[in-house]
Design brief:
By secondary structure, the protein is mostly helical. It has helices spanning 2-41, 44-75, 79-113, 123-144, 147-154, 157-177, 182-214.
Length: 227
């Protein structure tokens, strides 16, 4: 009975750790959406809410780290359980960095509102949607322990990279056409770069899920065959 209780308690701790990561991921998804929505609406108030929520993201990462360290110290896990706990810490770190980028976009929004818009925003919101979709997919893969789903998200990174290149080239043209566009265009390029980096962190999470389940790193997987 004692052993069963210990095992059950340990399983509950792992479940709680997973839930903490998912809750943090959900907040970070909300941060991405809020930052880009504030940018599109040119809302300083909405941008401020995203910046304020960044402290909560940081606190959640710290709680996950403390929980994981306590499990490592008291349970001395082996094999898969060891990887599950260690990867929770790494995933939380990637989520914290994504949250930082969302807050940085919100801060850029405050500056962009102070100058007239130089172009309608189309590509940047699409980049954000793909990045959010990647993050949701890797979080689903994490809770479901679904490597195929993680790899599918991992493959979408090139799509975001291509969109960033497109935004960069377009905004460079605007800057060459009118020097007054330089400052807001640089801010928008930074926003696009932040989204591109978020997608990179989502691919990091996909790689960590692959390692957590298989104990092997993703090097360069082949692209999935066309339909």
């Amino acid at each position: 009975m004692g052993t069963n209780h210990i095992v059950k308690s340990y399983d509950q701790e792992i479940t709680l750790l997973t839930r903490q990561v998912l809750e943090m991921g959900g907040l970070v998804e909300h941060q991405i959406a809020g930052a880009v929505d504030a940018l599109v609406k040119r809302s300083v108030e909405d941008a401020a809410k995203v910046v304020e929520a960044d402290d909560q993201v940081d606190r959640m990462e710290e709680e996950i780290d403390q929980h994981a360290i306590r499990l490592l110290a008291t349970r001395q896990p082996m094999a898969v359980d060891l990887r599950v706990i260690a990867m929770a810490m790494k995933i939380a770190n990637d989520l914290e960095r994504i949250g930082d980028y969302a807050a940085n976009i919100a801060k850029r929004c405050k500056r962009l509102v102070a100058s007239p818009p130089i172009k309608p925003l189309y590509t940047i919101p699409r980049m954000a949607l793909i990045t959010q979709a990647m993050l949701k997919q890797v979080l689903d893969a994490y809770v479901e322990r679904d490597v195929a789903k993680a790899v599918a998200a991992w493959h979408r990174d090139d799509e975001v990279d291509d969109m960033y290149t497109s935004v960069f080239r377009e905004l460079l043209t605007y800057m060459m056409e009118d020097p007054r566009n330089i400052s807001p265009a640089l801010d928008l390029i930074a926003v696009a770069k932040h989204l591109e980096r978020m997608a990179d962190h989502a691919t990091n999470i996909a790689e960590q899920i692959h390692y957590m389940i298989h104990g092997q790193r993703i090097n360069r997987l082949p692209q999935p065959a066309a339909g």
